[in-house]
Amino acid sequence: MDKKVIKRNGSIQKFDKTKIIKAIKKAFQSTIGVSESDFNNLIDIFSNKIDEQYKDKDDVEIELIQDFVEKTLVDLGYFDVAKNYIIYRYQHKRTRQFVEQKNEFINNYKDSDNTANATIDDNSNVSNHNISVLNAEIHKEENRLINIKILERKLKALYPDFNSKQLLDDLNSICYLHDSSSQIGMPYCVAITMYPFLNDGLKNIGGLSASPKNIDSFCGMFVNLVFAVAAQFKGAVATPGMLLYMDWFLRKEWGDSYYEKLDYIISPSISLRKNTIHHQIHQYFQQICYSLMQPAAARGMQSVFWNISIFDRPFYDTMYGDFYFPDGTQPQWESFNWLQKEFLHWLNQERLKTILTFPVVSACLIYQNGEFLDKDLYHFICDEYAQGNSFFTYISDSADSLSSCCRLSSKIEKPQFSFTNGQLSEMTGSKNVITLNMNRIIQDFCNQYTITKDDGSIKNVQLFCDDIKKWRSLVYAEWLSSKNDNGIRLKFKEYLCNILNRIYMYQTAYDACLQELKEAKMLPVYDAGFINMRKQYLTIGINGLNQAAEFIGLSCNKNDAYKEFCNLIFTTIKEQNALHKTKDLMFNTEFTPCESAAIKLYNRDKHDGYWVPDDTNLYASYIYKPNDSDISILDKLYLHGKEFCGDNLDGGSAAHLNIDTHLSKEQYLQLIKYAAEVGCKYFTFNVPNSECDNCGYITKVPIVKCPKCGSDKISYYDRVIGYLTKIKNWSIGRQIEQKTRVYQKV
Ligand SMILES: [Zn+2]
């Protein structure tokens, strides 16, 4: 009977002595110090030993054959050859494991119903589930490892006395490095000035097109511009000046009062399709928005995260009062204002045909001395909300800060026009985001917190409490009796500062990596003048705030103890941000939306034995708990206002006001005025939209049955975090969380 070899996967092959000898030959060939003739002299010895070893066996496992070869080489004194044989064997094993692991990933991806559930870093903006998405997703694990290693090396170089291994410990416990898996070493997000585009087109960022000459080339090239910029950033690209530039080109085409001649037919007489100025402007909107919603290959088939702003008159005056286009003319408020309103209104109507996720629009209003300075835009915005429109409102008491992104407001130090870059104040963004897991941090802190007992002995609070309940109530009592300048609160502040010191080192190292890329001319968006690195922040994110408060016994609603808790954390980070500022580095603080991180951090804490609540499956990004039905819309605005947040969350935090149906214009007028009064700077209203899977009918409210075709197959859309997507595309974790959201009746 023939001998058999049992392979690793269980399959059976004929025993072939020559294969074994061939493998030994390879090991000899790759070893310095032995020659081919050494091997030839040994063939017979090997051959005999193999015959001897396997003469009575019918079948042999491959691993045992390899063990035998290793042992024989050592017995014969060929240690180096044995070593190479072992390395060769190990490398093959690793390749096999790698391929198996990737194959498993591919199979899992094929079987999953959406991309968010089959990736290590989900994002509901990827609506496709196809081969090109797979090709981006499959590298995420390696990208993450490489990114962290690069950061660790830079850390070591910058701070030789610091144990750089601490980075990995921290990333696996108290903090989260955002989007570390999508690409290798990129800046995070950006709001650009588009002025260099008017001067040089796309030439300086790798394109061929020179500057746009008319409205048609502007619209086409604008799309290319946003794609080209987005390909070099992990997150959002904001173009706050888009409508200002579009207005300029429209005026060049049809005159300064084009918006008063909307019904004018512009088609040539030979054309059968009669097109008006109004219709043509809508076509430009369509061209831009639909093109930008196209999944981008350079972004793992995510569409671009694209944001634009709408400005009220005082914002406009501050931002563009001294602005000049390359032809020496200035912007014109009347037509620009018409265009921005027209765009917002059009977007709402268009979303009855297709629920466009982008752009995320932020309307910026100034509120001073009890009133909105631009009443016309304030009324317009409320009217749009009442008609089911979905966008963010940003309110400031002066034009010195601006929101140009769904998650970022930035300080405008001195709005300043330059003939090279245009409006410099448009430039902002985040170079990198590292989020602190506050729930974990407070528990680690409490674990090591000690108190002095009556007899003078110092005790660790946790150790002398026999159960966790007693421990937590003791911490609660300590917390309430303490003040910020003594006791447990002061100790917590010191504890947090200690962690922050490390985070600033990580951020500085990340920044140094970006500087290197820039010096190597690998970040052309910067060199072309669209953005300046000094205008971008390194962002300290916050997550798990509600749970941190709950852990020490506080309730996340309007109460003084919770307010002081929030203030303590926010002001500590803000103070430290200011202390660590240098001429090249600025830090800001943000309630990070954490689409996927919120679930990962929750699960990690649960897995590692930390306390996590069971009324949710993730850490939300609000002062209030979105699943708390006792908190009213007014409370939510209040909690995101000056009392709880102040100006401390300078990197952004958005209140998402989930309501079950749209309100009247009058109600929005009151709500937004209330928001301004209590200092809630940034918010939006969310009412789930519905789309009939059968006939495609779309409505801006949740329905269970299609009024058009009667089908009960309805898809719902909501903001997973900042942007509106189909709930079916969300990860399972986010879909579970969505069911716990309270959509209030007002
Ligand atoms: Zn239908």
Topology readout:
Blueprint lengths: L3 E3 L5 E3 L2 H13 L6 H19 L4 E3 H14 L3 H33 L19 H7 L2 H19 L6 H7 L3 E3 L11 E3 L3 H6 L14 H16 L6 E2 L3 H13 L22 H16 L13 E6 L1 H8 L12 H18 L9 E9 L2 E2 L2 H12 L5 E5 L4 E5 L2 E4 L5 E2 L3 E2 L4 E10 H11 L1 E3 L5 E3 H4 L3 H14 L5 H33 L4 H4 L9 E7 L1 H7 L8 H20 L7 E5 L5 H11 L25 H7 L15 E4 L6 H14 L3 E5 L2 E4 L5 E2 L14 E6 L4 E3 L5 H9 L6
Parallel strand pairs: 1-3, 5-6, 6-7, 7-8, 8-10, 15-18, 18-19, 20-21
Antiparallel strand pairs: 1-2, 4-15, 5-15, 8-9, 10-21, 11-12, 13-14, 16-17, 22-23, 22-24, 24-25
> Which stretches are poorly predicted, pLDDT < 50 over at least 5 residues?
none
Radius of gyration (CA) equals 31 Å
Total domain units: 3
**How many individual β-strands?**
25
Query: Shape from CA axes?
Result: globular
Bound small-molecule species? zinc ion
Decide which structural class fits the backbone: alpha/beta
Portion of residues in beta strands equals: 5-15%
Q: Helical region count? A: 25
Range of helix content: 40-55%
Largest sheet: 12 strands, mixed
Q: N- to C-terminal separation?
A: 84 Å
Mean pLDDT: 90
What does this structure look like?
With 746 residues, this protein is an alpha/beta fold. It has three domains: 4-101, no CATH class; 144-186 and 431-621, no CATH class; 193-426, no CATH class. Helix content is 45%, strand content 14%. The chain contains 25 helices and 25 strands. Strand 20, helix 24 and strand 21 form a beta-alpha-beta unit. The model has no long low-confidence stretch (mean pLDDT 90). Zinc ion is lined by residues 692, 694-695, 697, 706, 708-709, 711.
